[in-house]
Amino acid sequence: MLLLLIIFSHFLFLSLYSGPCLDPLISPLYASSFHASSRYNFFYSAHFAKLYGSSGWSPSPRDRQPWMQIDLGRKYRIMAIATQGTFNSYDWVTKYMLLYGDRFDAWTPYVMKGGNMTLPGNWNYYQVKRNVFHYSFTAKHLRLYPMGWNTENGGKIGLRVEFYGCPYGKQHTELLFEGDDMVAYSFPRGRMRTLQDHYALNFKTLEKDGVLLHSEGLQGDSITLELKIGRLYLHISLGSSTVHDTNGMTTMMLGNLLDTQHWHYVTIKRYGREVNFTLDSQTEPAVLNGEFQYLDLDKQIYVGGVIEKDVPHLPGKVNFRGCMENVFINGINIIYKTQYQEPEIRLAPKKPMTFAGPNNYLQLPGFFRKNRLAVKFKFRSWDYTGLLMFTRFADELGSLELGLSEGQVNITLMQPGNKRLRFAAGYRLNDGFWHTVDLTAKDNLLTITIDEDESSPLKITNPFMVRTGDRYFFGGCPKTNNTARCVTKLSRFHGCMQQIFIDDEPVDIDVMLQRKWGRYAEILLGTCGITDRCSPNPCEHEGRCIQSWNDFLCVCNNTGYKGEVCHNSVYRESCEAYRLNGKYWSGNYTIDPDLSGPLKPFTVYPIIFLVQKSWTVIEHNRMKSTKVSGSTMDRPYIGDLQYVNASWDEVTALANTSLYCEQWIEFSCYKSRLLNTPHGRPYTYWIGRHNESHEYWGGAFPESGKCGCAVNQTCTDSKYWCNCDADYRQWHSDKGYLSFRDHLPVRRIVIGDTNRTGSEARYSVGALYCHGDRSIWSTIAFTKPTYLTFPTFKPGISADITFHFRTYRTNGVFVESSDDHLRNFLRIELNSTTEVVFIFMVGDGIRNVTLRSPKPLNDNEWHYVEAEINVKLARLKVDFLPPAIHKFPGQTYITMEFTQPLLVGAANHTLRPFLGCLRGLRMNGVPVDLEGKVDERAGIRRNCTGACMNASIPCRNGGQCIDGYASYACDCNNTAFDGYYCHLDIGAFFDVGAWLRYDIRKEPISFDAWWANFWIEPHWHNFTLGYNTTTDDIEFSFSTLQAPAVLLYISSFSNDYIAVLLKKDGTLSLRYRLGIISYKFKLTDRSMADGFPHFVNITRHNYTIWTQVDYMDPWIEKLIPGEIPRFDSPKSIFLGRVMEVGGVDYEIQRHNSPGFMGCISGVRYNIFAPLKAYFRPNVTNPPVTTQGYVVESNCGAFPPVLGYVPWEDDPWFTGLFFYYIHDDVTPPWMTRKFTVTLILLSCFKAYIALFLNSCQISTILLIKVTKQFLKCIYTNVFCSSCFSLSFIPIQHFSQTCKSC
Fold first, then answer.
1. All residues at 6 or more sequence positions from 174 whose CB lies less than 8 Å from its CB, including other chains
2. Matching Pfam families, A to Z (predicted)?
């Protein structure tokens, strides 16, 4: 069943990627097409490595560099690869490298986007891992190098594979030459003597020079076909006469500019001395010099160049780089023989190797104790430094080191007793191209030639001795088993090498390693795996790319940008942004309106910073008055404005993001009309932002067709809407400010009525003035689960997203951009109260960057988010917290090709919606117009307003509204009340002698702490220490029938105190002691001991005290000015009775006995609520102590003035209509008065029982309450005082209660 599922998924893959070039290429091959470096045993041979096969390929455990190779038999275009592990085993490859080529000994690595050469493999043995190549390539031979494999449960390398593609072109028709390739065809009998010849080939190239054909004989005969300066030359000689001193060389030339990558067709036909040389359609006949008829060539003919042991190319010529096809030499198909590797064909020795590991090196043998050293090799690299070659001389005569340093080859010669010799040759050799190093040394003479430039070799003639050692090290020194004492301070070389010669003998790497004459580590043989990471340039905004072997670096100097890829602007987006960051002085500033966008920064000046705004001023070339004459409507005068230091796009971007812009415009006229008002075609107009013409003038409304004088009704002639339209023979002017921002800036002035006799006009345009920044303050609130859609985000290779947010919610998606199948997406979301997550899938799998904040982020405060992703890393920053960074491997490529609209406020399908506010959203520096998408019905509001703005029932008693944006809640923590709207009183009944103490502090405040609290946060709302010592805020309500009593007492660690006293006559008194001065304030003139609830509010700020009792007018009292009036170190709050240890003021003691008996409710001192802490504790051990009978009751609650309660929020509401059943005759006892009386009596009966059982109310109080209750019933007057002892909400009897 599992096998059927796998095969089904295989055919599903073919159907999804169905096309003309996805044929399986491996399954039809025979066993002879598979080769490998080794095998585990016969049953794990390479030919078992077919996809869905019953086994698989596994190499020998002793194989240090295993590979498997496939010969496709012909050239194919390769599109994709699929791999599996060995069948029914723990053997599979997790990553591998793929090489391809037309030859079995010359390979090119497949390089993924970003320069990575390692492809992802399997995670089990049965599932198929497919990799579709991002570019197709052509190859006849394929080789796979396992780079990682499963090692758990005894696992090893195991591979089954399939390639997909199609045949490439006609078979055996084309060869590619790269400058270091050639094909040599050997003549059957060692020579070729011909009377007539027919050569034909096709070629195309981008190079202007190169040898296409060459052969020569021992008698001076030769033939050479070459490109030189884009022209085709044929050099042919049948031999030279030594008798008549005749030169037989003949040169012919055809064509020009042949380096255009187009195919060109060449034919050479010779019979005897007559030659026809044809290029495309042009034929040039000639008679060869000399007197011979036969062409005698020896050994071989070269195609594409000459590469031999000591001759890398013909002297003074370069090898061909390009393509050839249909190469025929006297009827012999050279390409056919090359493709089938026939014995007459010899290819250039091309066995490069790649040094790519942290410990790579190559050790080769040499002849021991010779007095001449000769080393020659080719290398290519991007690195600045690295060891090229090291050898130690025999007989302890020192060592010789070749190293790459800052793009030069450094030669270091060290010998005992002599000064170390160091010199350099070459220049910029780390450019990624092949370079040749040829070094020879003998006693007292060393010569080094770079790139075979024999005209300028470097020669050193210092005294030294040379006796060659027996080992040469290339690329680095062995880390272990270093018996040859290879010692260097240089880093290891990373790059490619080939064509190594030691002692003038070519080194065959394969032979050396097979016979174990050499050693190596971390080298990839047979290929050069170098890639160019700076092409195309990954650095943005003209940053300079510098690369090494496995990474690149962007140099952003003098670009105005910073970051890993020069993506982020170093400047602010506007002058408003500078002002908000503390720049309050005028001067020259550089701004970048689109930040990381394509527009360049520019300088604006001057900038005038005022108190609440900053003006950005941009000047131009038309600020001075310009005279105009001789213009008509058909041939108007056109005046273009060139803004200083900024392009038109940059000025437009500034105006687009500004909150307000204005530009002065003035037109002075002498018999020259302006707008031709009121109904004519305008003679003069101006062109603004979108290349649109505008037919209104300064001071008038947009598109009104008027001038400013028409708006002000000050025109010279009231029949016209402009002064100049009166067409008088005297000077007039129309001028004013253009202030419609969407039309600015002014780009062009068009004037067309100055051609009449005496007509003349002058115009001028002022500088552009802008202030504010819409992108900073563009704010919306999400109050319902929804999202906004914007055009598809197309970031390129880098993206940055910035915005502000505030919310009370614990999670929600801010921004999402994706493709159709979510295979490519970016998302930023609030994941929890302390985590913001940047999630993305822009390459291999889903990744995320999580920033964890030490404080909650859903605190309804603004937080700033910056997210950035590029090929180097992904970064997430919130506020001023350290950024969270996820670094990518050095060869990463990211793909951000989104197709879906940009979503703001939720993920697709409204998943994980965000409720809260967003402000200043920018995508890659471009502002997103959030306010333009405001839709109240969809739950999107302008500005940061949520449910608290239009709360159906506001939070009461000082409760703070907590905006959930879709809903709201009331925070009652700093109040003395409870309930959903902070509307429920928390009070208590105190029997005689009962008391409650709330401890504010356990020790006095130090002077340093007070001073820091006072100066760091001197605002009167500050309660850093739990209160502000220069501010007191007291409120409570009470009801009692007994006096005197101490209602509230606040003690301190000093002699300071605050007391509210109920005197013997029932009046209220406030006592204050601050420092050495005591204050007495009378709060009421009538008795408050009447059994009714009364409310007291006392507020002090510095020397001023505000007091209010019930709904009386507030009183204002002043303290005596002096030292800072602070209440020093509050200690405890007492209710019911003062039980302070230590001296208590006599006046307080006089009112302290027998104690308060009655009800007290809603007690609060600053942020301390003693009764709430006692009855609604939010800590395990609240700092409250009680004695006597103290029970919770709201009998002292003062009836509030309640606002309107909407019916949808009223739990007592039963509907818009009250349906009831009635008879025709209503009994007299069912009258309104009687019904209400019965209800009240039943309620009163219940409350009498309640208070008698639980409240222990006194008999006297009960009699008084009963009298008042019966009075209300008799007079049909129902008020809140009648129900002050009840628990029924008063507002539901509001229709009945008329007055108190």
1. 323, 324, 325, 335
2. EGF, F5_F8_type_C, Laminin_G_2
Which one-letter DSSP state was computed for residue 313? S
Token couple for 682: 């305008």
Per-residue DSSP letter, 432: S
Cα–Cα distance between 275 and 283 in angstroms, integer? 10
Q: Has residue 1242 got a pLDDT over 90? A: no
| Range of weakest confidence among 119-133, 220-234, 463-477, 1215-1229 | 1215-1229
Same domain, 1102 and 1248: no
Using CA atoms, how far apart are residues 490 and 401, in angstroms rounded to an integer?
10
Q: Give the pair of three-digit tokens for residue 715.
A: 């025109």
* Number of domains comprising the chain: 8
pLDDT given at position 244 = 61
Higher pLDDT, 106 or 742: 742
Q: What single string gives the DSSP state of each residue in 472-530?
A: EEESS--SS--TT----SSPBP-EEEEEEEETTEE--HHHHHHTTS-EEESEEETB---
> Mind giving me the DSSP string for 943-981?
SS--TTTT-SS---TTPEEEE-SSSEEEE-TTSSEESTT
90: in domain: yes
- pLDDT reading at 770 higher than 60: yes
Looking at residue 664, its pLDDT comes to: 95
What does the pLDDT read at residue 1210? 57
| Cβ 338 vs Cβ 345: under 8 Å | yes
State whether 163 and 180 are in the same domain. Answer: no
With cut-offs at 50, 70 and 90, classify the pLDDT of residue 5.
very low
Across the range 542-571, mean pLDDT stands at: 91
Q: 106-122 burial by CB neighbour count: b if 16+ within 10 A, else e?
A: bbbbbbbebbbbbbbbb
C-alpha to C-alpha distances, 1119 to 210, 276, 1060, 1100, 1103, nearest whole angstrom: 104, 122, 17, 10, 5
Indicate whether 964 and 1026 sit together in one domain: no
Q: Which residue has the tokens 């309804």?
A: 860
Whether 723 maps to a domain, the answer reads yes
The total of other beta-carbon atoms located within 10 Å of residue 369's CB is: 12
* Closest by CA position to 770, among listed 656, 690, 694: 656
Are residue 808 and residue 760 in the same domain, yes or no? no
In a domain, 508, yes or no: yes
SS3 1011: helix
pLDDT tens-digit profile of 1273-1290? 434 433 333 333 333 333
The answer to pTM > 0.85 is no
> What is the domain-level CATH number for residue 1114?
2.60.120.200
pLDDT of residue 945: 78
Provide the pLDDT confidence category of residue 1180 given band limits of 50, 70 and 90: confident
CA-wise closest residue to 1134 among 1072, 1011, 1241, 1050:
1050
Alpha carbon distance 1074, 1058 (integer Å): 9
* Number of CB atoms found within 10 A of residue 926's CB: 18
Q: Where are the alpha helices (DSSP H) in 1044-1160?
A: 1146-1150
> Has residue 150 got a pLDDT over 50?
yes
Answer yes or no: do 185 and 163 share one domain.
Answer: no
Domain end among 347, 370, 386: 347
Q: What is the mean pLDDT of residues 7-21?
A: 49
Rounded to the nearest 10°, the torsion over CA 1036, 1037, 1043, 1048 is -10
Q: What is the pLDDT of residue 835?
A: 95
Same domain, 794 and 920: yes
Helix (H, G, I), strand (E, B) or coil at 221: coil
SS3 983: coil
Residues counted in the chain: 1300
Q: Provide the residue range defining the domain that includes 423.
A: 353-525
| Residue 49: CATH number of its domain | 2.60.120.260
Q: Give φ, ψ of 1198 to 5 degrees.
A: -85, 130
Rounded distance, CA 306 to CA 314, Å? 6
Is residue 35 assigned to a domain?
A: yes
Are residues 1017 and 1035 located together in one domain of the fold? yes
